[in-house]
């Protein structure tokens, strides 16, 4: 639900999301909130009570739109608002929401929503601690993340579980052909064909990369004693480099 439905046309018709829609694995409907306004200007915002800068999204179009859209399916689904005050979007939240068959996403604009519409919310989501011009891009981010969890969407189902942020670790480095490019070589272990050694190398690289760039994630990871020592060494190196 948005006042700028045209923003969704190209991004949601391309790449994996577009293919999922073409194959009938994902059904996506974009609703124009202006269809539930009652004045000739199709107004969806008004000045805030108490004064202040900007405009606030009116409650009437949002209430009426949700009341009209929910009965379009036997599954009432969950209503989510894209708002900076919402819970930060994480892989864990994506996995939780992916178990829901139907979501109704409401995109905010201007200074935000009339707070009364949040009585309709089953959840609120933010994609980060920064301000955007509206909730459309966050909604597309959420749809993209959720689409990957629909069975049959990805060519290799293991891809869902091998990605960054699974197990609270960043993904290991990836390489493809040629084996040597401009003097830069693909690690020898990846060319051995020894799957056990490759798995061990990838796990160690995930721990190292996470410790170097996102040590805050390590608290949710299950590390062996050896992996914890590797993480400690990398974090110490990073602190020493920052102190130079």
Describe this entry's structure for a reader.
The termini are far apart. The chain folds into two domains: 5-147, Alpha/beta knot, CATH 3.40.1280.10; 166-242, Trp Operon Repressor, Chain A (Orthogonal Bundle), CATH 1.10.1270.20. It has helices spanning 15-22, 59-69, 91-98, 136-147, 158-162, 195-213, 225-242; strands at 45-46, 56-57, 78-88, 103-107, 123-126, 180-181, 184-185. The strands form three sheets. It has a three-stranded parallel sheet with strand order 4-3-5, sandwiched between helices. Strands 1-2 form a two-stranded antiparallel sheet. It is of the alpha/beta class.
**Low-pLDDT segments, ≥5 res:** none
Mind telling me the CATH class of the largest domain?
A: Alpha Beta
Q: Specify the helix fraction band.
A: 25-40%
Give the strand tally: 7
Compose a concise summary of this entry:
This protein is α/β, with parallel strands linked by helices.
Brief descriptors of the model:
244 residues; alpha/beta; Alpha/beta knot; Trp Operon Repressor, Chain A; 2 domains; two-stranded antiparallel ribbon; elongated
